[in-house]
Design goal:
65 residues, mainly alpha, two-stranded antiparallel ribbon, 4 helices
Length: 65
């Protein structure tokens, strides 16, 4: 199984995102900005709630394996 995306990878694909944002908004933004499939899968696996900023998203992705 591949490692989860790194904090920096998450930040790159979410650059320019307006927060707060829902999980689906994050997935859509990442897809529009060239995120690869493992990144999109990691975002889709997060709980469906509002995220206040990129650090919260990164923390959620890096804690789930």
């Amino acid at each position: 199984m591949a490692d989860n995306p790194s904090f920096i990878e998450v930040q790159k694909c979410l650059a320019g995102m307006d927060y707060p944002a829902s999980r689906d908004q994050l997935v859509d933004h990442a897809a529009e900005h060239g995120a690869d499939e493992p990144m999109l899968q990691a975002l889709r696996a997060m709980p469906d709630r509002e995220y206040d900023g990129p650090s919260g998203v990164s923390k959620e992705i890096t804690k789930s394996s």
